[in-house]
Amino acid sequence: MISARVLFFSIHCMLAAMAGFAQEVTIENYSVDENGKVNLLINSSIDKYYLLQVKHHPDSGFSVNSAICFGQNGTTLISESLGAYPAEYYRILEYNMNAPVDIDTDGINDVIEMQSSGAPLNAAVEIPLEHGAVILNTFDAYHSVSVEENGTPWVSYLDHVEYTKFIILDFYTNEPKLFFINSNTYNLHEDFANYLGIDNMAPSVEKGQILYNPSVLSNNGTLGCFAFNFSNNETKDFEVIQRTHELLAANMPFLENNLSYFITANNETDYQNNISLFQNSRVPVLFETDVYAGIDYWGLNQTEGYGYFRLLMPGEIPDSKDIVLCESIPNSLPRVGGIISSFIQTPLSHVNLRAIHDHVPNAFIRDPLLIDTIANLLNHYIYFKAGQSTYEIREASIEEVNAWYENMRPSTEQIPPLNLTHQAILSLDEIHFHMHDGYGAKTANLATMHTFGFVDGTVPDGFGIPFYFYFEFMKYNGFFEQIQILLSDEDFLTNRDYRAARLAEFQDAIRSADMPSWMYDQFTALQNQFPPGYAIRCRSSTNNEDLPGFSGAGLYDSKTHQPDEGHISKTILEVYASLWNLRAFEAREFYRVNHFYTAMGILCHLNFEDERVNGVGVSADPIYNTTSTFYINSQLSDVLITNPEGAYPEELLMKHDTASANNYLVIQYSGLLSVDSLLMTSAQLFQLHSYLTVIHNQFAVLYRAEGNPSFAMDIEYKIDAENNLVIKQARPWVSYVPVEFETPEPEDCSFKLFPVPAIDYLHIDCLACDSITIQISDLAGRIVSEQSVYLASDGIVHIDLQSLNPGIYVAHAISNNSICSGVQFVKL
User: What strands, in cross-sheet order, belong to the sheet with 29-32?
Assistant: First the structure.
């Protein structure tokens, strides 16, 4: 075999001789486009054509012909298919159209080959398309010679992946001949070699395959990655890999710097031994172990459900009883009946978190519309069950669907915790765990972690705005009355498009509304607590999220107030408005949550800038169901974990009881790294393990969940710009089921209040009572009204509320010296 040194020396001599027919032109401008490809501007004319040559090292010759094009009058912009080298690595040669040469020495001059869509940079002679091609000028041309098989037992990474094969003859000579095999015609390289009449096992032959995976992030940062490797997973010298990479790219001119070398599991060791050669080149790599290409089904949330099966188009909002087929990641997803996606999700994507919380099936199925048993059920009511390794789908009756949903909903109205006696904006150091009913669990839990003894800065400093401010703002603008009008509108309750439009109008009204001067002044004082010139993160902290058994993930919006946006009240009103977005309203409606008791608190702290890593961790393993492990997802920089766009995150399992720096199992590495390595240092992983252990144990006590096997804590963390671990959120994992504590049964004098909310009168229904006293108190326990009444024969009495100010009150019925349990109500 000819050595790499002799190979490249001979090529250099050939090109140098050929350059004698050409004139080198000056590169007037060098730039790099958004895909990382070079753009070289030259002065040109239409009676010339131009060849772009490349060298791989500053002290080597221009050994690679990478692109060729006709000249234009005035100037011509020349590019190539791979990532850009520095300007000094390029030269451009000019040739006369009237005296063309034959750069690839195949017997046909360059001009004829370019005019006939031939391959002027490939010494192979053109063959009929039914056999293959010598150049792939377009993506369609690649499709025409590629296949996608349902199963390739001997090469598992080709399962359900579009690919074609290639073969290169005379590889170690000055005239390599590349053929893209029409894999629809030839299943094996040997069969194609027989067509050519050559020995495919000859030492001068190299062969392999080119894969295309639309769901993998390519070297240019966009989805859609081409990758090549060699037959039988053979390892090759780096010079062979590099030359194959260049030769394929030169004859696939439609590429956008998205061709990588595919490294299978068996040749990762060889790659590691030569890693410096790859890192100092423009040959990107893609690892088999990092790609989901072999997965055709993944049951992410394994349960069952019923609903109306529909294809979810971008921008559409599904109904709560829809089972949706998603072909792209939705920006947000309200409650639905089930999810099938044709794109790979991650276990902690916001789509899957919603599915887990809502107890609905969620699965990835490759190309579901090509499966008749799925496609034929579109726009029908269905039953769908996502299992671990398979799924079940069938048509269902409307009676089955309706019965299913009625059984799932709570049977009674849900009242979220609400305490309006907390009326001050406080620093997190002044807020404790049991104040969650006044500030929200997100704020209270973050504040509580300040007491856990973590290194200063681990938990952000900040402030909590209580629910009281939201209620005072809403009352000041008469918004509760507007909500009452909406809920009394039959069209609003039955017509979803109308409901979406009215809620959007209501949100706009909130964003543009005035607020009491005292409130504005307190927000001014809050803003002044932060250093000038820094962005402030304003995070939703409602009484309808981050709760045991209800995470509310993705329901409400958090906003960042930028230094140039003026008064912070602008951003606070945007967060307030998010309480009334369609997905949040419908989630509350489904779970029978009283809208008037739902309140928005806000957690404020400095915004994180330029973080190195962001991640989500759970103090259990809800994905693979291993025991005594923490599940950790991390990703580079600020690329989303919960809503990834093609870049799959790092997955680790950490052992609970092993306090060491190496107590983890790597499930997969981050898809944004070209080399398999962890995103965090051993010290950071050890610190994360220690802190997550403390968080689990401390909150288990606070939530009275010690010994509860369903309890776990879900945290969000970052490695900030200074390389410090920051924990920005902690909440119970969505599957946590609180243990109810037994309380004495009250006397059987329960009563009902209606309407809720009330305006001028409150109606009380108490059939078990004779004469009663109605005692009304505010949330501070002060009695504001007391009336002794005798009930009518129907057991209903009317209480005049006109003297009361708008707000939240508690009504008690006192019968025969026994006080029945209090019932909260809103007075508008």
Answer: 29-32, 38-44, 74-78
- Provide the 8-state DSSP code for 428: G
pLDDT in tens, 19-32: 447 899 999 999 99
In our burial notation (b when 16+ CB lie closer than 10 A, e otherwise), range 498-536 reads ebbebbeebbeebeebebeeebeebbeebbeebeeeebb
Q: Which amino acid is at 95?
A: Y
Helix (H), strand (E) at residue 17? helix 4-18
CA distances from 605 to 111, 427, 528, 530, 613 (A): 65, 10, 12, 8, 19
- Tens-digit pLDDT profile for residues 53-97: 999 988 888 989 999 999 999 999 999 999 999 999 999 999 999
Identify the bridge partners of residue 811 per DSSP, sorted by sequence position: 776, 823
Tell me the two tokens of residue 306. 């019923």
Percent of residues, the chain, with pLDDT higher than 70: 82
d(CA 357, CA 336): 11
Q: What is the residue whose two structure tokens read 């000041």?
A: 476
Q: What is the spatial distance between Cα 61 and Cα 603, in angstroms, rounded to a whole number?
A: 61
Residue 26: which of 10, 42, 48, 9 has the closest Cα? 42
State how far the Cα of 774 lies from the Cα of 789, in Å rounded to an integer.
8
- Take residue 650 and report the two structure tokens written for it: 């790092």
pLDDT, one tens digit per residue, over 29-53 is 999 998 899 999 999 999 999 999 9
DSSP 710: T
CB 272 within 8 A of CB 287: no
Give CA–CA dist 252/226, Å, rounded: 11
Distances (CA, A) of 751 to 778, 782, 820: 19, 21, 8
Please spell the DSSP secondary structure of 216-260, one letter per residue.
Answer: EE-TTSSEEEEEEEEGGG----HHHHHHHHHHHHHT-TT--S-EE
- Give the dihedral sign, CA 775/776/778/779: positive
Closest CA to 715 of 683, 738, 693: 693
Model pTM score = 0.55
In the chain the first and final C-alpha atoms are separated, in Å, by 89
Whether the CA torsion 253, 258, 260, 264 is positive or negative: it is: negative
Of 60, 62, 58, 70, the closest CA to residue 18 belongs to 62
Q: How many CB atoms lie within 10 A of CB 423?
A: 13
pLDDT at 7: 46
Give residue 14's pLDDT: 46
Cβ atoms of 403 and 382 within 8 Å: the answer is no
Question: Is residue 137 a contact partner of residue 117, using CB atoms and an 8 Å limit?
Answer: yes
Q: Side-chain half-sphere of 430: how many Cα atoms within 13 Å? A: 13
Q: 435, exposed or middle or buried, with CB in 10 Å at 0-12, 13-18, 19+?
A: buried
pLDDT at 640: 64
Q: What is the pLDDT of residue 329?
A: 64
Q: pLDDT per residue over 176-234, tens digit each?
A: 999 999 999 998 888 899 999 998 888 899 999 999 887 677 888 777 889 999 986 67
Sign of CA dihedral 747, 752, 758, 763: negative
Task: Report residue 813 as tokens.
Answer: 């019925």
SS3 state of residue 337: coil
